[in-house]
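From the methods appendix. Each design record in this collection lists the tokenized structure first, followed by the designed amino acid sequence. Records were kept in a plain field format so they could be parsed without special tools. The example shown here is representative of the layout used throughout.

RECORD:
FOLD TOKENS (214 positions):
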């Protein structure tokens, strides 16, 4: 094992958030990033409909299901396998496919979460462009599926493509804030964007275009 890999493994095992995740039954330390964001932003309410894009291994969906309770609905989608979770509908596939909208059964989402990342090539410019493409696709999904007072949480990485995504979010939403939870490692370039109140077309036009009832 390379020295850098050993150092990463040592740091990972001793990470307090990794230890907390194991102790509290979360599938990854990422759960605490969403918990922090919810504490600050009040993302969830009982009975809400939540869609989790790029959900594997499922820690964000776990948090969402706990927050919204049995009266709510969480749909988790990923190209990777996701082990079943209580209170979560799991879909395997591309979130850009029609079956995700069909799974909403005519309802709008109150919250859309996106932790979607491409397969990394190791070429920074290529990876940033692919990540931006997926982020823009998630924004397209919000236009179809997020209710007018809904909230979108996007995990993104600083780089050349980040500004393009951020500007699109500012056009598409009434309020946009960039956050860095304490659970996010300081050396990581990841950041979280919380966007509220999507700007949409007239509800009737929207319904005709998307096939989803207003």
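DESIGN:
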């Amino acid at each position: 094992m390379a020295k850098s890999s050993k150092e990463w493994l040592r740091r990972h095992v001793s990470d307090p958030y990794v230890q907390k995740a194991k102790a509290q039954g979360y599938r990854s330390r990422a759960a605490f990033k969403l918990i922090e964001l919810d504490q600050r932003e009040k993302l969830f309410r009982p009975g809400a409909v939540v869609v989790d894009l790029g959900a594997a291994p499922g820690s964000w969906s776990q948090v969402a299901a706990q927050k919204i309770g049995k009266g709510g609905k969480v749909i988790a989608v990923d190209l990777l396998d996701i082990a079943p979770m209580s209170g979560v509908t799991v879909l395997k596939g591309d979130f850009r496919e029609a079956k995700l909208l069909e799974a909403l059964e005519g309802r709008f989402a109150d919250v859309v979460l996106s932790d979607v990342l491409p397969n990394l090539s190791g070429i920074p410019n290529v990876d940033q462009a692919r990540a931006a493409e997926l982020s823009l696709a998630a924004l397209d999904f919000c236009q179809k599926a997020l209710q007018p007072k809904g909230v979108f949480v996007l995990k993104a990485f600083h780089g050349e493509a980040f500004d393009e995504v951020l500007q699109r979010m500012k056009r598409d939403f009434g309020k946009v804030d960039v956050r860095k939870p304490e659970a996010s490692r300081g050396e990581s370039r990841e950041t979280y964007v919380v966007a509220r109140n999507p700007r949409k077309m007239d509800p009737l036009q929207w319904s005709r275009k998307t096939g989803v009832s207003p």
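APPENDIX NOTE: DSSP finds eight helices and seven strands in the chain.
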